[in-house]
Prior knowledge:
This protein is of the alpha+beta class. The protein has four helices and seven strands, in the order E-H-H-E-E-E-H-E-H-E-E. Helix content is 28%, strand content 34%. A seven-stranded mixed sheet has the order 1-2-3-4-5-7-6, sandwiched between helices. The longest helix has 16 residues. The mean pLDDT is 94.
Amino acid sequence: xxxxxxxxxxxxxxxxxxxxxxxxxxxxxxxxxxxxxxxxxxxxxxxxxxxxxxxxxxxxxxxxxxxxxxxxxxxxxxxxxxxxxxxxxxxxxxxxxxxxxxxxxxxxxxxxxxxxxxxxxxxxxxxxxxxxxxxxxxxxxxxxxxxxxxxxxxxxxxxxxxxxxxxxxxxxxxxxxxxxxxxxxxx
Length: 187
């Protein structure tokens, strides 16, 4: 079941800023989403996971680690739902070093496979921009993407600029090396 933008209501957003705020049910949904997105070829596999296909049991420990890092000033989880169903999520973190504390990193940008192409990813990017600037006081965001998926175009439409590449930095399989693309957004 894949939906289109015309079939999807505007997503609702929930922000989690502390480990105690994140219900087990949402953690299970995040793990299931992550596994589905990895299996569809669209997300980074957590370091302690096997190669796909994955199940949510494979990604649960990574979700638990993310939950443990949540803190209002330093790390926030943003979840998008449509009609109560998890449609996508991302993480925004303030850089820890004092020289970079005005910057943040966006990680784990994921749209559930059933909601791809429906505008959920673009809505998440608009929301994280506002959270980073207005609530966290950040001035710049950065993220990295894998080449070969057209993600640089998606982020470019959202105002991000490619600022560099690490050629062949990501090896998906023998003979399938991809560039890691560095992107930046001034808030």
